[in-house]
Design goal:
The protein is of the alpha/beta class and about 300 residues long. It has 11 helices and 8 strands.
């Protein structure tokens, strides 16, 4: 699909992702004709914020003048939203959903009405009340060739880097992003819980951990390989320190033992793969991790 010189956009959804995207589009001077959402109030608020001409609850997208449609709704709602939009002619309209886990085939009802369809997933963290940048991030795109070409153009317009992701790989692609983002938050939460035992607040714990976490990421970026940035007792094969950790966990945080051991085993695997530990030292580390599981395996994590 050739890039139209003056695209007219409609956004379906008014949550955190749609809000950040809408502002990114407006910063590039893109005309946003409409914002549609299950919540008319949310649609109106976003429409006013970005100067959209119309807003409302989910219904018909104004075709024309709209030439391009971004659908940013939860995965669980996508099928129903697409079904509700699949009325009239969509001939030549470019449509993308922003799901990381689902393929472009979720938009088939619109394709059958003439739309060019693809998925357009920003590999970025989005939360309500805070705008996230699209500049410099990667956007996974897949779908019909003509629609993917258009998606690539859109990614570049908002300063992002398009990455082609086969539809069959969307699950693995999304899994990687989930583990890198959500589980990082979980690890920070766990570390904050441990530091709370020292009397530190969540804000103080984050202040303490922030330079460490940023330093690790900067090292990984500089070395262009996460495994090369590994440090700490497992890389050194320091079974004595691991034993100390095990005692602290058993005495004060028994519910964290399974998490520590699972991550420890994976860290050990990386260390062995990089050649930092010989088989004898690696086996000693593994033995300490396995011993931790026997300290108090019956304790469950509190809810």
């Amino acid at each position: 699909m050739e890039a139209r010189t003056e695209p007219v956009v409609a956004l379906v959804g008014a949550g955190a992702v749609a809000t950040s995207l809408a502002h990114a589009l407006r910063m590039q001077g893109v005309s946003i004709a409409a914002v549609l959402s299950r919540s008319s109030a949310s649609a109106e608020a976003l429409a006013h914020a970005v100067g959209a001409a119309a807003w409302g609850s989910l219904g018909r997208v104004p075709l024309p003048p709209v030439t391009d449609v971004f659908i940013a709704v939860p995965d669980s709602a996508l099928s129903a939203v697409v079904a509700s939009l699949a009325e009239g002619s969509w001939e030549g309209v470019w449509v993308a959903h922003l799901s990381g886990a689902l393929s472009h085939q979720e938009l088939d009802p619109l394709r059958r009405r003439g739309a060019r369809i693809c998925s357009f997933h920003p590999m970025q963290s989005f939360i309500r009340g805070r705008l996230s940048t699209f500049a410099g991030i990667c956007i996974g795109v897949e779908g019909e060739p003509e629609a993917v070409a258009r998606a690539t153009w859109w990614a570049e317009q908002i300063g992002a880097r398009p990455i082609l992701v086969p539809g069959s790989a969307k699950g693995a692609y999304h899994l990687a992003g989930t583990m890198a983002s959500n589980y990082l938050v979980a690890l920070l939460g766990i570390s904050s819980e441990i530091l709370a035992s020292l009397g530190l607040s969540s804000a103080q714990a984050l202040e303490l951990l922030r330079p460490l976490v940023r330093g690790v990421l900067e090292n990984a970026e500089a070395l262009r390989c996460p495994e090369q940035a590994l440090s700490g007792p497992i890389r050194r094969g320091d079974a004595v320190t691991l034993r100390r950790h095990g005692r602290v966990l058993a005495e004060r945080f028994p519910h964290l033992i399974p998490v520590y051991v699972a991550l420890g085993v994976e860290t050990l695997r990386l260390a062995v793969r990089q050649g930092w530990l010989n088989p004898e030292r690696a086996q000693a580390v593994l033995a300490e991790l396995e011993a931790m599981l026997r300290l108090d395996p019956s304790v469950e994590a509190p809810l």
